[in-house]
Write a structure and sequence with these properties.
The protein is an all-alpha fold. The chain has two helices and no strands. The longest helix is centred in the middle third of the chain and has 82 residues, at 3-84. The radius of gyration is 43 Å and the shape is rod-shaped.
């Protein structure tokens, strides 16, 4: 073998060996990056599962309050219809302040709303 051939062979082998080392380092770095990405992915999955649980709890609370609101509106409409159709009466629980002087007026008079006032009360409520 000639010296020139040996020199070319050494240069070629060195280049191939250098490329092989570079490829191996790239594979090692890629593997390390893959491991860190895998760890981050597992953390993101755990956070996502926590958020899903929170969203489910919020939906449950929303459904509960929506159901309660619908029931209350239905009950209010039924009471309104009963008062309008004279099937029930509107009752106010009032408290009267004590007065130190005696009054000559009769406090036993029954007070009741007029029909129009009854309707306005339920509409405002």
């Amino acid at each position: 073998m000639s010296t020139r051939f040996k020199f070319i062979l050494v240069i070629t082998m060195t280049t191939v060996f250098g490329l092989l080392i570079t490829v191996l380092f790239d594979i090692k770095n890629t593997y390390l990056e893959f491991g860190s990405i895998k760890t981050e992915l597992s953390q993101v999955k755990a956070e996502f599962n926590q958020y899903q649980m929170i969203v489910q709890k919020v939906n449950d609370i929303d459904n509960k309050f929506t159901h309660n609101l619908a029931n209350t509106k239905s009950e209010n409409n039924n009471l309104y219809d009963n008062v309008i159709n004279d099937l029930g009466r509107l009752q106010f629980n009032l408290s009267k302040a004590e007065q130190s002087t005696t009054s000559s007026m009769d406090d036993g008079v029954f007070c009741e709303l007029t029909g129009e006032a009854r309707q306005n009360y339920y509409q405002l409520r």
